[in-house]
Amino acid sequence: MGVRKRRIKTSSSLWFSSLSFLPEGADVDYPASVFIVRDNKILFMKHDKLGKWIQPGGHVEDDETPDQAAKREALEETGYKIHFKDQKQPSSFSQEEDLPTPFNVNLHRIREGHLHCDFMYTAHVESQTEATHSHEHSGLSWLSKEDVESDKYDIPDNVRRKAVKILEQNQ
After folding, report:
1. DSSP line for 105-146
2. 0.85 exceeded by pTM
């Protein structure tokens, strides 16, 4: 396992100064996550630290863009190489490039004084290899809309709402 690079982080007073509802000086991390869709189901993982079922994802490192972080995290945590749904994916950089667009950007509190601004993507499976960070979760499961809506899986409300929306759009 390689050395983790520094995560992108900032103070809310810098980026979100116009959002008066945020606590002054709160730390903001920038994760990227991905809802991987296959056969009208979404891949969830039982996150060990949180004890909840969530989509693969993690912090954007200082040398990558959010879409690159989402792809890296999906591969590390699940072993799936992914392709973003209906989006051009740059293969090189010249002077300017449009990046894949997240379907949602969600700001949520992790704990007092600490926020996450999550770039949420949708993707499909391109291929599968071995997961290198499977120790971060205690299982993967492909969940249908009925599974996501049920009480069987402890899924954060914001994640549940987004997953249902994606599955309804994919029917």
Report:
1. EEEEEEETTEEEEEEEEEEEEEEE---S-GGGEEEEEEE-HH
2. no
